[in-house]
């Protein structure tokens, strides 16, 4: 059984990508570079192969964190920091990911492989990358295993969810003058590079310095009396909160205009924002409770695996939203993987709910085991989703996923021809 109903398969042939990018940096600096860079790739390389190559670089970066900085995973109190050069590889890797992610659409036009599968594949890799970069950036900012890292996860996933929700209701991907895929990624690249530069002196603790002190603004009496002198990493979190608020307003404004232009309800789409805060609240309730401070996830070896499981669960959630977009189906309200979050949250809060110890997570060891089982289940479920969706789309459209091939009228595989009519930013 696949994820796409039989009646919705026909909508795959009607799907056309639409996108708007208003970033000055993207249009006048990066896009000329991307246009040149894509010419370095042979036309026999499939666009999805380029996308997957970019994600592989990020996975390698994440592997270096696990290898060089095991204390981030195993000890209470945060990390000691990997070697200085590792931060530069994270910055280079993320920049390459952004570049590969930007040129896969251009390669799709060159090879005649543009379509709904590329949209699904591209967004799926982006969703996975989102959580991995939250973990890497939080380490580089010296946030460690803290609620700041959790807040970063929520804000970053919320931005991704907003973009997906907006694209579904407007029919196009909208990137404003400041967006996560462009300026946001370059900002994180800068963080990695700065942490690498100051690694010989302070490493990630560089970001614990006070913002007004570093900028010398503490000597300006008007500012010093009115602006709190918070740490650099906390300042970045505050900036992220304002960015999220701005994106919420911008996304709804675009949806409002689109719905109003077509005579549809401008308030109904707001209901489809509710699944994200509901799922995020479940994760927060599961992660910590004052009565379980000795075995909660925040201070255990399970913290990073939990964030990874949360990220893959989110990837499944938004993957189904993107699938609904390309196949013309209603947005999903419910995700079956939330059952694990519900069980975890209820069990962790049994002391508050029923005045008794948790049934499953009654010790740090059991909490860790349960989280790792959760991660395994989420990985298998998401892998099943990816395999089935790819199978449904490739079989129906007669295309390959990682090679530049299509089936002709006789069912024979042939190299795809460029389609100049297909447009994608």
Read across the widest sheet, the strand sequence of neighbours is: 1-2
How does the overall form come out from the CA principal axes? globular
Strand content: under 5%
* Percent of residues in helices: 55-70%
> Strand pairing plus helix content: what structural class?
mainly alpha
Q: Would you list the SSEs in sequence order as H and E? A: HEHHHHHHEHHHHHHHHHHEE
> Main sheet?
2 strands, parallel
List how many beta strands DSSP finds: 4
Number of helices: 17
Rounded to the nearest angstrom, the radius of gyration is 23 Å
Low-confidence stretches: 421-425
The residue-averaged pLDDT reads: 89
Total count of domains? 1
Protein name: Choline/ethanolaminephosphotransferase
Features:
single chain, 425 residues, mainly alpha, two-stranded parallel ribbon, two-stranded antiparallel sheet, 17 helices, 4 strands, 63% helix, 3% strand, disordered C terminus, Choline/ethanolaminephosphotransferase
Could you characterize the architecture of this molecule?
This protein is mainly alpha-helical. It has one domain. Helix content is 63%, strand content 3%. It is built from 17 helices and four strands. The strands form two sheets. The chain has a two-stranded parallel sheet with strand order 1-2. The chain has a two-stranded antiparallel ribbon with strand order 3-4. It is globular, with a radius of gyration of 23 Å. The two termini are 33 Å apart. The C terminus is likely disordered. This is Choline/ethanolaminephosphotransferase.
């Amino acid at each position: 059984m696949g994820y796409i109903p039989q009646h919705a398969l026909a909508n795959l042939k009607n799907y056309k990508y639409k996108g708007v990018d208003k970033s000055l940096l993207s249009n006048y600096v990066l896009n000329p570079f991307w246009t040149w860079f894509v010419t370095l790739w042979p036309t026999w390389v499939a666009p999805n192969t380029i996308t997957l190559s970019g994600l592989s670089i990020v996975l390698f970066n994440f592997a270096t964190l696990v290898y060089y900085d095991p204390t981030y995973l195993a000890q209470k109190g945060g990390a000691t920091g990997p070697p200085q050069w590792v931060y530069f590889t994270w910055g280079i890797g993320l920049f390459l990911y952004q570049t590969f992610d930007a040129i896969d659409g251009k390669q799709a036009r060159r090879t005649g492989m543009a379509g709904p599968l590329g949209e699904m594949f591209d967004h799926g890799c982006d969703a996975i990358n989102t959580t991995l970069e939250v973990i890497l950036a939080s380490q580089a900012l010296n946030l460690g295993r803290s609620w700041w890292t959790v807040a970063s996860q929520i804000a970053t996933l919320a931005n991704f969810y907003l973009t997906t929700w907006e694209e579904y209701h407007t029919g196009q991907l909208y990137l404003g003058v400041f967006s996560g895929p462009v300026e946001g990624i370059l900002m994180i690249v800068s963080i990695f590079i700065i942490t690498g530069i100051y690694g010989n002196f302070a490493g990630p603790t560089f970001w614990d310095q006070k913002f007004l002190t570093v900028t010398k603004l503490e000597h300006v009496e008007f500012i010093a009396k009115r602006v709190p002198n918070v740490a650099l990493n906390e300042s970045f979190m505050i900036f992220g909160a304002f960015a999220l608020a701005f994106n919420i307003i911008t996304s709804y404004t675009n949806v409002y205009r689109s719905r109003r232009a077509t005579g549809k309800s401008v308030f109904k789409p707001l209901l489809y924002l509710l699944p994200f805060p509901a799922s995020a609240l479940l994760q927060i309730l599961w992660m910590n409770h004052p009565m379980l401070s000795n075995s909660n996830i925040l201070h255990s070896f399970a913290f990073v695996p939990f964030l990874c499981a949360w990220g893959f669960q989110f990837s499944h959630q938004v993957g189904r939203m993107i699938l609904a977009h390309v196949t013309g189906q209603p947005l999903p309200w419910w995700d079956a993987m939330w059952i694990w979050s519900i069980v975890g949250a209820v069990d962790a809060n049994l002391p508050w709910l029923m005045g008794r110890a948790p049934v499953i997570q009654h010790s740090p060891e059991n909490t860790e085991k349960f989280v790792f089982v959760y991660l395994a289940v989420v990985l298998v479920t998401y892998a099943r989703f990816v395999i089935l969706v790819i199978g449904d789309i490739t079989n129906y459209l007669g295309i390959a996923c990682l090679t530049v091939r299509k089936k002709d009228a006789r069912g024979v595989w042939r190299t795809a021809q460029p389609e100049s009519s297909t447009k994608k930013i």
